[in-house]
Protein backbone atom coordinates (compact mmCIF):
# COMPACT_ATOMS: atom_id res chain seq x y z
CA UNK A 1 0.00 0.00 0.00
CA UNK A 2 1.25 3.49 -0.84
CA UNK A 3 -1.34 6.02 0.34
CA UNK A 4 -3.74 4.93 3.09
CA UNK A 5 -6.34 6.88 5.03
CA UNK A 6 -7.31 5.78 8.54
CA UNK A 7 -10.45 7.36 10.00
CA UNK A 8 -11.24 7.85 13.68
CA UNK A 9 -13.56 10.83 13.92
CA UNK A 10 -14.55 11.26 17.55
CA UNK A 11 -12.57 12.30 20.63
CA UNK A 12 -8.99 12.62 21.80
CA UNK A 13 -9.00 9.38 23.79
CA UNK A 14 -10.54 7.43 20.92
CA UNK A 15 -7.77 8.58 18.60
CA UNK A 16 -5.07 7.64 21.12
CA UNK A 17 -6.61 4.17 21.45
CA UNK A 18 -6.36 3.80 17.66
CA UNK A 19 -2.58 4.13 17.93
CA UNK A 20 -1.66 0.41 17.80
CA UNK A 21 -3.87 -0.10 14.72
CA UNK A 22 -2.34 2.95 13.04
CA UNK A 23 1.20 1.67 13.69
CA UNK A 24 0.34 -1.74 12.24
CA UNK A 25 -1.09 -0.13 9.11
CA UNK A 26 1.85 2.28 8.83
CA UNK A 27 4.25 -0.68 8.85
CA UNK A 28 2.71 -1.75 5.51
CA UNK A 29 2.09 1.67 3.94
CA UNK A 30 4.27 4.43 2.51
CA UNK A 31 2.03 7.27 3.70
CA UNK A 32 -0.76 7.31 6.31
CA UNK A 33 -3.32 10.09 6.60
CA UNK A 34 -5.51 10.20 9.71
CA UNK A 35 -9.01 11.53 9.10
CA UNK A 36 -10.06 12.90 12.47
CA UNK A 37 -12.86 14.99 13.92
CA UNK A 38 -12.19 18.40 15.46
CA UNK A 39 -11.99 16.97 19.00
CA UNK A 40 -9.42 14.28 18.18
CA UNK A 41 -7.18 15.95 15.62
CA UNK A 42 -4.60 17.18 18.13
CA UNK A 43 -4.11 13.62 19.41
CA UNK A 44 -3.61 12.46 15.83
CA UNK A 45 -0.64 14.79 15.50
CA UNK A 46 1.04 12.86 18.34
CA UNK A 47 0.54 9.35 16.95
CA UNK A 48 3.55 7.46 15.62
CA UNK A 49 2.90 6.33 12.05
CA UNK A 50 0.69 9.29 11.08
CA UNK A 51 2.15 11.39 8.26
CA UNK A 52 -0.64 13.97 8.10
CA UNK A 53 -3.96 14.74 9.78
CA UNK A 54 -7.08 15.86 7.95
CA UNK A 55 -10.18 17.06 9.78
CA UNK A 56 -13.84 16.53 8.96
CA UNK A 57 -16.70 17.01 11.41
CA UNK A 58 -18.84 13.99 10.60
CA UNK A 59 -22.61 14.48 11.06
CA UNK A 60 -22.93 10.72 11.75
CA UNK A 61 -20.27 10.77 14.53
CA UNK A 62 -20.10 14.20 16.17
CA UNK A 63 -22.03 14.56 19.48
CA UNK A 64 -23.34 17.93 18.29
CA UNK A 65 -23.71 17.08 14.62
CA UNK A 66 -23.78 19.72 11.93
CA UNK A 67 -26.29 19.39 9.09
CA UNK A 68 -25.35 16.98 6.32
CA UNK A 69 -25.11 18.91 3.07
CA UNK A 70 -24.31 17.93 -0.48
CA UNK A 71 -21.51 20.48 -0.60
CA UNK A 72 -19.82 19.13 2.55
CA UNK A 73 -19.95 15.57 1.18
CA UNK A 74 -18.49 16.77 -2.12
CA UNK A 75 -15.64 18.51 -0.31
CA UNK A 76 -14.91 15.38 1.76
CA UNK A 77 -15.00 13.15 -1.31
CA UNK A 78 -12.49 15.46 -2.98
CA UNK A 79 -10.24 15.24 0.10
CA UNK A 80 -10.34 11.45 -0.06
CA UNK A 81 -9.58 11.10 -3.75
CA UNK A 82 -6.32 9.32 -4.55
CA UNK A 83 -6.05 6.97 -1.59
CA UNK A 84 -5.45 3.30 -2.38
CA UNK A 85 -7.01 1.96 0.83
CA UNK A 86 -9.06 3.11 3.79
CA UNK A 87 -9.61 1.78 7.29
CA UNK A 88 -12.72 3.14 9.00
CA UNK A 89 -12.28 2.85 12.78
CA UNK A 90 -15.41 3.31 14.86
CA UNK A 91 -16.75 2.61 18.32
CA UNK A 92 -19.19 -0.27 18.77
CA UNK A 93 -22.19 2.09 18.63
CA UNK A 94 -21.07 3.97 15.50
CA UNK A 95 -21.57 2.94 11.87
CA UNK A 96 -18.67 2.98 9.40
CA UNK A 97 -21.02 2.90 6.41
CA UNK A 98 -21.69 6.63 5.87
CA UNK A 99 -17.96 7.28 5.50
CA UNK A 100 -17.54 4.10 3.44
CA UNK A 101 -20.12 5.49 1.00
CA UNK A 102 -18.17 8.75 0.65
CA UNK A 103 -14.94 6.80 0.18
CA UNK A 104 -16.56 4.84 -2.65
CA UNK A 105 -17.72 8.10 -4.24
CA UNK A 106 -14.10 9.27 -3.97
CA UNK A 107 -12.96 6.19 -5.88
CA UNK A 108 -11.06 4.47 -3.05
CA UNK A 109 -10.73 0.87 -4.27
CA UNK A 110 -10.27 -0.93 -0.92
CA UNK A 111 -12.15 -0.18 2.32
CA UNK A 112 -12.12 -2.13 5.58
CA UNK A 113 -14.19 -1.65 8.74
CA UNK A 114 -15.65 -3.42 11.74
CA UNK A 115 -19.31 -3.72 10.81
CA UNK A 116 -22.30 -5.77 11.95
CA UNK A 117 -24.69 -4.26 9.40
CA UNK A 118 -24.84 -5.62 5.86
CA UNK A 119 -22.45 -3.37 3.86
CA UNK A 120 -23.30 -4.46 0.32
CA UNK A 121 -20.51 -3.26 -1.94
CA UNK A 122 -19.33 -0.54 0.44
CA UNK A 123 -16.68 -2.67 2.16
CA UNK A 124 -14.01 -5.00 0.87
CA UNK A 125 -13.30 -6.23 4.40
CA UNK A 126 -16.25 -6.56 6.75
CA UNK A 127 -14.64 -7.50 10.04
CA UNK A 128 -16.51 -8.71 13.10
CA UNK A 129 -15.14 -8.80 16.65
CA UNK A 130 -16.65 -11.21 19.18
CA UNK A 131 -16.85 -10.49 22.87
CA UNK A 132 -15.93 -7.25 24.59
CA UNK A 133 -12.18 -6.64 24.07
CA UNK A 134 -10.39 -3.40 24.95
CA UNK A 135 -11.02 -0.77 22.30
CA UNK A 136 -7.35 -0.61 21.31
CA UNK A 137 -7.27 -4.36 20.61
CA UNK A 138 -10.61 -4.21 18.82
CA UNK A 139 -9.27 -1.66 16.34
CA UNK A 140 -5.94 -3.45 16.01
CA UNK A 141 -7.79 -6.63 15.06
CA UNK A 142 -9.15 -4.88 11.95
CA UNK A 143 -5.63 -4.01 10.81
CA UNK A 144 -4.50 -7.57 11.51
CA UNK A 145 -7.45 -8.99 9.57
CA UNK A 146 -6.21 -6.96 6.59
CA UNK A 147 -2.72 -8.46 6.92
CA UNK A 148 -1.14 -5.55 8.78
CA UNK A 149 0.95 -6.67 11.73
CA UNK A 150 2.72 -4.55 14.32
CA UNK A 151 6.40 -4.13 13.48
CA UNK A 152 9.01 -6.18 15.38
CA UNK A 153 9.59 -4.81 18.87
CA UNK A 154 6.26 -2.98 19.05
CA UNK A 155 4.53 -4.05 22.27
CA UNK A 156 1.06 -3.02 21.05
CA UNK A 157 0.43 -0.53 23.82
CA UNK A 158 -0.50 3.12 23.44
CA UNK A 159 2.27 5.53 22.47
CA UNK A 160 2.94 9.08 21.37
CA UNK A 161 5.83 10.71 19.57
CA UNK A 162 8.69 12.06 21.65
CA UNK A 163 10.55 13.95 22.82
CA UNK A 164 8.39 15.60 25.44
CA UNK A 165 9.07 19.16 26.60
CA UNK A 166 10.53 20.04 29.99
CA UNK A 167 7.58 21.09 32.16
CA UNK A 168 9.35 21.35 35.52
CA UNK A 169 8.62 25.09 35.51
CA UNK A 170 4.92 24.19 35.50
CA UNK A 171 4.91 21.25 37.90
CA UNK A 172 7.63 22.33 40.31
CA UNK A 173 10.35 20.06 41.67
CA UNK A 174 9.67 16.72 43.33
CA UNK A 175 7.27 13.79 43.01
CA UNK A 176 3.63 14.53 42.33
CA UNK A 177 0.25 12.97 41.55
CA UNK A 178 -1.93 14.44 38.81
CA UNK A 179 -5.67 14.83 39.38
CA UNK A 180 -7.60 15.51 36.18
CA UNK A 181 -11.19 15.64 37.48
CA UNK A 182 -13.15 16.48 34.32
CA UNK A 183 -14.37 14.58 31.27
CA UNK A 184 -15.94 15.60 27.98
CA UNK A 185 -19.43 14.80 29.30
CA UNK A 186 -20.77 15.42 32.84
CA UNK A 187 -21.91 11.82 33.40
CA UNK A 188 -18.28 10.67 33.42
CA UNK A 189 -16.96 13.29 35.87
CA UNK A 190 -17.19 13.44 39.66
CA UNK A 191 -18.84 16.62 40.88
CA UNK A 192 -16.44 19.55 41.40
CA UNK A 193 -17.03 19.38 45.15
CA UNK A 194 -16.21 15.66 45.34
CA UNK A 195 -13.14 16.18 43.17
CA UNK A 196 -12.01 18.74 45.73
CA UNK A 197 -12.40 16.15 48.48
CA UNK A 198 -10.19 13.75 46.52
CA UNK A 199 -7.49 16.39 46.08
CA UNK A 200 -7.60 17.27 49.79
CA UNK A 201 -7.35 13.59 50.78
CA UNK A 202 -4.28 13.08 48.58
CA UNK A 203 -2.61 16.19 50.02
CA UNK A 204 -3.37 15.07 53.57
CA UNK A 205 -1.79 11.70 52.74
CA UNK A 206 1.44 13.50 51.87
CA UNK A 207 1.21 13.76 48.09
CA UNK A 208 2.02 16.86 46.11
CA UNK A 209 -0.92 17.26 43.73
CA UNK A 210 -0.94 18.84 40.28
CA UNK A 211 -4.43 19.62 38.98
CA UNK A 212 -5.16 19.62 35.25
CA UNK A 213 -8.50 20.05 33.51
CA UNK A 214 -10.90 22.20 35.55
CA UNK A 215 -10.03 23.12 39.14
CA UNK A 216 -12.15 21.33 41.77
CA UNK A 217 -14.32 23.34 44.14
CA UNK A 218 -13.62 23.89 47.79
CA UNK A 219 -9.87 23.33 47.78
CA UNK A 220 -6.82 25.53 47.41
CA UNK A 221 -4.45 22.55 47.56
CA UNK A 222 -2.24 21.49 44.71
CA UNK A 223 -0.53 23.12 41.75
CA UNK A 224 -3.25 24.49 39.47
CA UNK A 225 -2.54 23.89 35.76
CA UNK A 226 -6.22 23.87 34.76
CA UNK A 227 -6.49 25.08 31.20
CA UNK A 228 -2.82 26.06 31.20
CA UNK A 229 -1.10 23.48 28.99
CA UNK A 230 -0.95 22.44 25.37
CA UNK A 231 -1.68 18.77 24.66
CA UNK A 232 2.04 18.00 24.35
CA UNK A 233 2.75 19.82 27.61
CA UNK A 234 -0.07 17.91 29.27
CA UNK A 235 1.49 14.67 28.05
CA UNK A 236 4.77 15.71 29.65
CA UNK A 237 3.03 16.61 32.92
CA UNK A 238 1.33 13.21 32.97
CA UNK A 239 4.58 11.43 32.07
CA UNK A 240 6.31 12.96 35.08
CA UNK A 241 3.61 11.93 37.57
CA UNK A 242 3.78 9.00 39.94
CA UNK A 243 0.14 8.31 39.10
CA UNK A 244 -2.81 10.02 37.44
CA UNK A 245 -6.32 10.17 38.92
CA UNK A 246 -8.89 10.76 36.20
CA UNK A 247 -12.33 9.72 34.97
CA UNK A 248 -12.90 7.97 31.66
CA UNK A 249 -11.58 10.72 29.42
CA UNK A 250 -8.82 11.53 26.96
CA UNK A 251 -6.12 12.46 29.50
CA UNK A 252 -6.49 9.02 31.14
CA UNK A 253 -5.58 7.46 27.79
CA UNK A 254 -2.84 10.05 27.30
CA UNK A 255 -1.41 8.98 30.66
CA UNK A 256 -1.46 5.38 29.45
CA UNK A 257 0.29 6.44 26.25
CA UNK A 258 3.20 7.85 28.28
CA UNK A 259 3.28 4.85 30.60
CA UNK A 260 1.92 6.41 33.80
CA UNK A 261 -0.34 4.34 36.13
CA UNK A 262 -3.96 5.51 36.29
CA UNK A 263 -6.57 5.51 39.04
CA UNK A 264 -9.66 5.42 36.83
CA UNK A 265 -12.81 7.00 38.26
CA UNK A 266 -15.03 5.10 35.86
CA UNK A 267 -18.74 5.76 35.37
CA UNK A 268 -20.32 2.61 33.87
CA UNK A 269 -22.25 4.47 31.16
CA UNK A 270 -19.89 2.67 28.76
CA UNK A 271 -18.22 -0.72 29.41
CA UNK A 272 -15.00 -0.59 31.42
CA UNK A 273 -13.85 -3.72 29.61
CA UNK A 274 -13.58 -1.60 26.46
CA UNK A 275 -12.59 1.80 27.76
CA UNK A 276 -10.52 1.40 30.93
CA UNK A 277 -6.88 2.62 30.70
CA UNK A 278 -5.01 0.22 28.44
CA UNK A 279 -1.55 -1.23 28.84
CA UNK A 280 -0.54 0.36 32.17
CA UNK A 281 -1.12 -0.52 35.82
CA UNK A 282 -4.58 0.80 36.67
CA UNK A 283 -7.12 0.77 39.48
CA UNK A 284 -10.80 0.94 38.51
CA UNK A 285 -13.00 2.76 41.02
CA UNK A 286 -16.71 3.52 40.82
CA UNK A 287 -19.89 1.44 41.04
CA UNK A 288 -19.89 -0.60 37.81
CA UNK A 289 -23.41 -1.87 38.53
CA UNK A 290 -25.06 1.55 38.92
CA UNK A 291 -28.44 2.11 37.23
CA UNK A 292 -26.78 4.13 34.45
CA UNK A 293 -24.78 1.09 33.34
CA UNK A 294 -24.46 0.82 29.56
CA UNK A 295 -26.75 3.79 28.91
CA UNK A 296 -24.17 6.05 27.17
CA UNK A 297 -25.94 9.06 28.73
CA UNK A 298 -24.14 12.39 28.73
CA UNK A 299 -25.80 13.68 31.94
CA UNK A 300 -26.18 11.44 34.98
CA UNK A 301 -29.84 10.35 35.40
CA UNK A 302 -29.39 9.30 39.05
CA UNK A 303 -29.64 11.97 41.79
CA UNK A 304 -26.33 12.50 43.57
CA UNK A 305 -24.23 10.86 40.84
CA UNK A 306 -23.53 7.91 43.18
CA UNK A 307 -21.33 5.87 40.82
CA UNK A 308 -18.56 8.50 41.08
CA UNK A 309 -19.46 10.76 44.01
CA UNK A 310 -19.88 7.60 46.07
CA UNK A 311 -16.16 6.85 45.78
CA UNK A 312 -14.54 7.34 49.17
CA UNK A 313 -11.51 9.64 48.78
CA UNK A 314 -9.64 7.20 51.02
CA UNK A 315 -10.11 4.58 48.27
CA UNK A 316 -8.35 6.91 45.85
CA UNK A 317 -5.48 7.45 48.29
CA UNK A 318 -5.12 3.69 48.78
CA UNK A 319 -5.21 3.03 45.04
CA UNK A 320 -2.49 5.62 44.39
CA UNK A 321 -0.34 4.12 47.15
CA UNK A 322 -0.67 0.68 45.59
CA UNK A 323 0.04 1.82 42.03
CA UNK A 324 3.20 3.77 42.85
CA UNK A 325 4.70 0.54 44.23
CA UNK A 326 4.32 -1.21 40.87
CA UNK A 327 6.70 -0.90 37.91
CA UNK A 328 5.36 1.19 35.04
CA UNK A 329 6.42 1.86 31.46
CA UNK A 330 7.76 5.39 31.00
CA UNK A 331 8.54 5.67 27.29
CA UNK A 332 7.46 7.41 24.12
CA UNK A 333 7.92 6.28 20.56
Automatic annotation (TrEMBL):
Pfam families assigned to the protein according to its UniProt record, in alphabetical order: Glyco_transf_9
Top-level lineage group: Bacteria
InterPro entries with a match to the protein in the record: Glyco_trans_9, LPS_LOS_Heptosyltrfase
Record's keyword terms, sorted: Glycosyltransferase, Transferase
Protein name: Glycosyltransferase family 9 protein
The keyword tRNA-binding is assigned to this record: no
SUPFAM superfamilies for the chain: UDP-Glycosyltransferase/glycogen phosphorylase
Gene3D superfamilies: Glycogen Phosphorylase B
CDD domains cross-referenced by the UniProt entry: GT9_LPS_heptosyltransferase
Amino acid sequence: MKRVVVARQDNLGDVLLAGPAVRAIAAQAEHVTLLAGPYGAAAGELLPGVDEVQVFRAPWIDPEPPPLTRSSVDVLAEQLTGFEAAFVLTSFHQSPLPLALVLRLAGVPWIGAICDDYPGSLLNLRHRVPGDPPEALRMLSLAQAAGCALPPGDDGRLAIRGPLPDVSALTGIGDYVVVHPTASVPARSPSPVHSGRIVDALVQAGHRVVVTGAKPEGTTAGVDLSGGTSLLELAAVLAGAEAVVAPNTGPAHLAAAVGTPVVSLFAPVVPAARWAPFGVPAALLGDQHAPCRGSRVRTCPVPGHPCLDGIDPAEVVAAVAELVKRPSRRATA
